[in-house]
What does this fold into?
Amino acid sequence: MKIISNPLELQAEMKSQHKTIGFVPTMGALHEGHISLIKKARAQNELVVVSIFLNPTQFLKGEDLDSYPKRDDADKKICLLANVDVLFFPDKENMYTDDEVSLLAPKVRGFTLEGATRPGHFNGVLTVVMKLLNLVKPTRAYFGKKDAQQLNLITLMTRQLFMDVEIVPVDTMRDSDGLAKSSRNAYLSQDDRVQALKISKSLHEASKLVSRRVLNSKEIQKSMHEILKPLEVAYVEILNRDFEIIEEVEIGNSVILVEAIVANTRLLDNIWL
Ligand code: AMP
It folds into this structure.
């Protein structure tokens, strides 16, 4: 496995390759969710590139940029074991200057839901993903369905900016108790975890309701809010796959998203129905 920290060196390395390239961008503190993305990339491409970069521009002032979990040595071992060919591990100084061109997320999809609680977050996400895709020039790039709004916006960006890359969605990996795996779960105590489980339980309840043909969004949201009590809930929203609010679940074309705050940690989860 090659470890590269200089963006231009990475670009030269990628240019010399005449292979299909699968790319998995991450912010590190790798867990089974990330590994499932890497495995899918490994299965579908000749060369696999992973980036680990804690992107400062997607954190708002006062968020957890400085305390975000860091496990550089373990991450390198995980990548080695997962048969990654190139690990891109840049410094912030190599990725950004003081005065930058940047992307602006679209008004509706970029500034609602997580974009409403974290205004400007998706500008930073799109800008760094654009930089990374330009460096790696992958055939396919892999993103988790767990971050459904991010996945939606990145797919939209590649279409609207006519970028030559296939965005591949990957299912959410969960712990055995149902909690969606996340680097930020490291912030949770045992008690917090019990509280956090209400999130996946509320989504489970939603899918049970839908399987009983209860499709009305308000009814589903009400049951979910009951289960989520007493958590601070940022939103429970039912959307179609174009990210438009819908009054009734459309089976095969819907996603139910939850963001709740447990012990100051924002946790996201969703279910695709
Ligand atoms: P992050 O390091 O949190 O920026 O995540 C890097 C990628 O891994 C993103 O595409 C995430 O959506 C994806 N990811 C994070 N958690 C999971 C999970 N539990 N299951 C599947 N993919 C995930």
